[in-house]
């Protein structure tokens, strides 16, 4: 059922939608919701709502796993009334997507409501995002991260940086407009490259002193303004480990919510030499690893225990991090070379 859009879209648009795949229907419907406050206001009455409290997502424990459940519009309405809030508060929600049946999905921060009472009533816990990311199934984390990132952006962009006047969110939350001069602000992400450098049969993993003990990962760095993806890869590899990049191959991307929204652009790169010159202001340690060593590091599903000599074995970020994807991809490629 095309519930979210029924009776709201023009007949012409609705006819077009019937010819499209559900993916295209959803994309077009979301476009209308983002752009048109009236359509979005209607969708609020039928949509579902993911809950946050001071940016901590609401999780429910079911047996040995956790879910990130949504409440219906009428359930949210009831919560607001019971906590003596105006139903207008529903309009503080931000749009984060829509279901396969085109029912709009929103996120709302209930930080002004009593947390422990809400948790008891809803039967779950508002959980810090980092902890929640590790508790939830990997496939459920992108929606939660996206929702938190958008709520966080709105929370920190209440005023225009040019006029100092308040900014007003449009209903979907796809932008904020300065009440003084009409300047429009859109949610932002910082582009970051993450590169798995390799040379012959080994790959390079590094760690910063702020990482948990034993954790090594691929090199990463924020793009400077005006740089291309390729230029950032070359500069970061040179800056952090003193190596000259020979070739770059794009792999995949990921939205990363920590500490602020980044768009992680993941690449493989080969280098011309292997002698490292580590920039200790940025990196605590960087080492070349063989296939066997990387396979060993991948075996740890969580932080490994200390060994008898007090050291922690090398391990790599969990599956939810794109670093893990890059490392797995390299392992697959090395294994396939062995077969050749
Ligand atoms: N999802 C994943 O697999 C991984 C994600 N990351 C993320 O990548 C990001 C960048 O990693 P680093 O190697 O530390 O970057 P980096 O090597 O560029 O160094 C960080 C420094 O860059 C500067 N900087 C420039 N632009 C910045 C911006 N827009 N925001 C914050 N700092 C900025 C700051 O001085 C900061 O201290 C971090 O947010 C980290 O969480 C890092 C590794 C793996
Ligand atoms: Mg870095």
TrEMBL record:
It catalyses: NADPH + H2O = reduced beta-nicotinamide D-ribonucleotide + adenosine 2',5'-bisphosphate + 2 H(+); NADH + H2O = reduced beta-nicotinamide D-ribonucleotide + AMP + 2 H(+); NAD(+) + H2O = beta-nicotinamide D-ribonucleotide + AMP + 2 H(+). Its cofactor is Mg(2+). InterPro entries: NADH_PPase-like_N (IPR015375), NudC-like_C (IPR049734), NUDIX_hydrolase-like_dom_sf (IPR015797), NUDIX_hydrolase_CS (IPR020084), NUDIX_hydrolase_dom (IPR000086), Znr_NADH_PPase (IPR015376). Keywords: Hydrolase, Magnesium, Metal-binding, NAD. Coiled coil: none annotated. Residues 187-318 form the Nudix hydrolase domain. Its EC number is 3.6.1.22. GO terms for molecular function: hydrolase activity; metal ion binding. It comes from the Eukaryota. It holds the Pfam family Zn_ribbon_NUD. It is an enzyme of class 3 (hydrolase). CDD domains: NUDIX_NADH_pyrophosphatase_Nudt13. This is NAD(+) diphosphatase. The gene is nudt13.L.
């Amino acid at each position: 059922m095309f519930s979210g859009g029924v009776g709201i879209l023009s007949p012409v648009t609705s006819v077009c939608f019937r010819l499209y795949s559900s993916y295209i229907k959803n994309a077009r419907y979301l476009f209308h919701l983002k752009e048109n406050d009236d359509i979005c206001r209607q969708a609020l009455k039928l949509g579902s709502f993911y809950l946050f409290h001071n940016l901590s997502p609401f999780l429910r424990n079911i047996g040995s796993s956790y879910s990130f459940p949504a409440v219906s519009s009428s359930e949210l309405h009831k919560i607001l009334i019971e906590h003596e809030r105006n139903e207008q508060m529903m309009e503080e929600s931000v749009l984060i997507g829509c279901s396969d049946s085109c029912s709009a999905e929103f996120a709302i921060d209930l930080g002004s409501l009593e947390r422990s009472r809400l948790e008891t009533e809803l039967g779950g816990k508002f959980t810090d995002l980092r902890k929640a990311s590790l508790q939830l199934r990997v496939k459920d984390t992108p929606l939660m991260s996206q929702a938190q990132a958008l709520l966080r952006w709105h929370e920190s962009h209440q005023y225009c940086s040019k006029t100092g006047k308040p900014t007003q969110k449009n209903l979907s939350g796809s932008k904020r407009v300065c009440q003084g001069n009409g300047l429009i602000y859109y949610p932002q992400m910082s582009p970051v490259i993450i590169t798995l450098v390799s040379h012959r049969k080994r790959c390079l993993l590094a760690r910063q002193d702020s990482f948990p003990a034993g954790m090594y990962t691929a090199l990463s760095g924020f793009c400077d303004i005006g740089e291309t993806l390729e230029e950032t890869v070359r500069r970061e590899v040179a800056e952090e480990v003193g190596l000259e990049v020979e070739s770059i191959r794009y792999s995949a991307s990921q939205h990363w919510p920590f500490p602020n929204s980044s768009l992680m652009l993941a690449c493989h790169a080969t280098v011309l030499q292997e002698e490292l010159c580590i920039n200790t202001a940025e990196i605590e340690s960087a080492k070349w690893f063989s296939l066997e060593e990387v396979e060993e590091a991948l075996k740890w599903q969580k932080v490994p225990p200390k060994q008898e000599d007090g050291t922690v074995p090398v391990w790599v970020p969990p599956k939810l991090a794109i670093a893990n994807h890059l490392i797995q991809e390299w392992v697959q490629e090395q294994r396939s070379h062995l077969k050749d």
